[in-house]
Amino acid sequence: MEQQKHGGDRYRNQIVYDASVNVNPLGMPEQVMERLRDTMSRWSRYPDCQCQALCRALEAFHQISAGQVLCGNGAADLIWRLCMRKKFKRGLVLAPTFSEYEAALLASGSKTDRFFLREENGFQPDLDALCQAVAGHDAVFFCNPNNPTGVLAKRYQLEQLARACQAQGAYLIVDECFNGLCDDPEGATMIPFLDKYPNLLILNAFTKTYGMAGLRLGYLMGADQALLEELSQASQPWSVSCPAQEAGTAALAADGYVAESRSLIQRERPFLEQELKKMGFMVYSSQSNFLLFSAEWERREQLHSSSLYERMKKRGILIRDCENFAGLGAGFYRICVGRPMDNRFLVETMRGEGNR
After folding, report:
1. Going by CATH, does the domain composed of 30-252 fall within 3.40.640.10?
2. Where are the domains of the chain?
């Protein structure tokens, strides 16, 4: 059976609980569901191809200037659109990180290089070395907090990288799709520096923070409005549906929802980390809503067919097998922080499927 590329493959499996997708454990906000129910009669119309109401709401929410945001059919749509339109000569990506950066670069004809994160350093990036590695590249992708490691770089570190990219004439694309659920979102976001660095682009989405993966809604922020207009023209017409636009606008007005979600994650993540360690797993420090861990015995024996992923799937639970992340391999897994009942169910099941 072909290795899954992403989490959430519940359509081909009989699943009781999905811990493979790192979305908000509270699910979609009630305000969003109410808006969707109330606006269904409008969905027979074509959507606003410029997403004007949603863009205005995003500009107010993030306190950015008008025209500095472009909406798309999820963050992945904007990653691919950017790479296909700009045809970068050479891109630089972290390893491990979200695979779509490299996939989009390669599909557009770009050459790519990987900056490997070292396990012995807890997958923390060496910013000095990364800034030196920028030379010769015209696009640098940086996921913050990083997926699948959960490591969060501080704003001063990313500003150092932004300066290095600007000096090289390279775009810095910072993916902040998990920022809303991390421990210190304000201390990590690069949004306040959009005007200072015209080479800076910031990706975000409603997927993770608001539990809206199925609606497909992401956005790109940048001070280079000419580039955003160019990317807008590169889209298929009506790429963001009516329900997605309505849901996004409602989500931004869901008072207290993100703070409640972050509080839940900060309470439950230590429990999962502790229980995984009790079972003998190596757990890597995370500041987001998911945990990367490894089974030393599987890594040593390079297990595949009898891996923890396969055994848990037989029990009706999906976890993310991270073997296909560059820089990882057999025996690496990621789980999402869920609600207390879900976390305890996951732990109890894993106790019976751990070190075999």
Report:
1. yes
2. 10-27+257-351, 30-252
pLDDT in tens, 188-197: 999 999 999 9
Residue 307 and residue 267 in contact, taking contact as beta carbons nearer than 8 Å: no
- Tokens, residue 197: 């660095």
How confident is the prediction for the chain on average, in pLDDT? 93
Give mean pLDDT, residues 227-242: 94
Q: List residues bridging with 200 in a β-sheet.
A: 172
Q: What is the pLDDT of residue 50?
A: 94
The answer to whether the bond into 145 is cis (omega within 30° of 0) is yes
CB 243 within 8 A of CB 44: no
If you write DSSP's letter for every residue of 200-264 in order, what string do you get?
EEEEEESTTTTT-GGG--EEEEES-HHHHHHHHHTSPTT-S-HHHHHHHHHHHT-TTHHHHHHHH
Closest CA to 263 of 289, 281, 239: 289
* Residue 354 pLDDT: 55
Q: For 104, phi and psi rounded to 5 degrees?
A: -70, -40
Average pLDDT over residues 83-89: 97
pLDDT-based confidence at residue 303 (cuts at 50, 70, 90): low
Residues 6+ apart with CB under 8 A from 51: 71, 240, 245
Contact between 147 and 97 (Cβ < 8 Å): yes
pLDDT band of 134, cuts 50, 70, 90: very high
Residue 239 CA to residue 123 CA, distance in Å, equals 36
pLDDT, one tens digit per residue, over 319-355 is: 999 999 999 999 999 999 999 999 999 999 998 765 5
221 closest CA partner among 21, 67, 45: 67
Q: Which amino acid is at 324?
A: N
Q: Which whole-number Å values give the CA distances from 110 to 26, 201, 224, 307, in the listed order?
A: 39, 18, 22, 35
Q: What is the dotted CATH code of the domain comprising 10-27+257-351?
A: 3.90.1150.10
Residue 142 DSSP SS3: strand
Coil, helix or strand at residue 102: helix
